[in-house]
Amino acid sequence: MSKKDNGASVILAYLNEKNRPYSAQDVFCNLQKQHGLGKTAVVKAMELLAQEGKIKEKIYGKQKIYFADQSQFRDVNDADLKAMDKQISELSAEVQTLTQSCKQLDTELKELNCSLTTEEMRAEIQELKAECSGYRARLEKIKSATNHVTPEEKEKVYKERDVYVKEWKKRKRLASDMMNAILEGYPKSKKEFLEEVGVETDEDCKVVFPNT
């Protein structure tokens, strides 16, 4: 782009390609980043192109709108318009299909990124194998032990436990009856009485009767 051209050729090509109305501000915003055109240069170039008849200019109040000279384009009949509409519909459907495919692929990619890599899977498999080996060794040790409790011994232990639990309940009931009898003539509360005589209850020690 020559200095004398001042961006006019770029702007003309752009308007002919897009074939839609633009203000000078629109063209500046669209081309400034790619071609480094200044706003003043864009305004002057578009005014010059309009004066030369290469583009058309319309004024709406204080706003100037520029667009390509339509005489350079061939006339479009109804058949052409229908064909274009059909092509637009087909392309729109294709875009929609591709968009859905992209979303699906994006979802699959996210799932793959969250999955373990091959090396991580191999390392985890080795860890699980080592853990299984440890469990097998413990199981063999338990099976080979000679100090297993027989059903008879287990039954004996449970019966002894039942005896002790019954005795525990009996003694607790007796102690409770005795304490209630004392509290009838005691001027203070039950809590203060227990603290004074130094008695700790099952509840203080958070102990409960086992299930029988």
From TrEMBL:
Gene3D superfamilies: Winged helix-like DNA-binding domain superfamily/Winged helix DNA-binding domain
Sequence ranges assigned to domain Leucine zipper with capping helix in this UniProt record: 149-205
Compartment list: Nucleus
Domain Homologous-pairing protein 2 winged helix span(s) in chain numbering: 9-68
Keywords for the protein's UniProt record, in alphabetical order: Coiled coil, DNA recombination, Meiosis, Nucleus
GO terms for MF: double-stranded DNA binding; recombinase activator activity
InterPro entries cross-referenced by the UniProt entry: Hop2_WH_dom (IPR010776), LZ3wCH (IPR040661), WH-like_DNA-bd_sf (IPR036388)
Pfam families per record: LZ3wCH (PF18517), WHD_TBPIP (PF07106)
GO cellular component terms, semicolon-separated: condensed nuclear chromosome; DNA recombinase auxiliary factor complex
Tagged with keyword Nucleus: yes
Main location: nucleus
GO biological process, one term: meiotic joint molecule formation
Coiled coil regions, renumbered to chain: 81-145
Family: Belongs to the HOP2 family.
Full protein name: Homologous-pairing protein 2 homolog
Organism of this sequence: Cyprinodon variegatus (Sheepshead minnow)
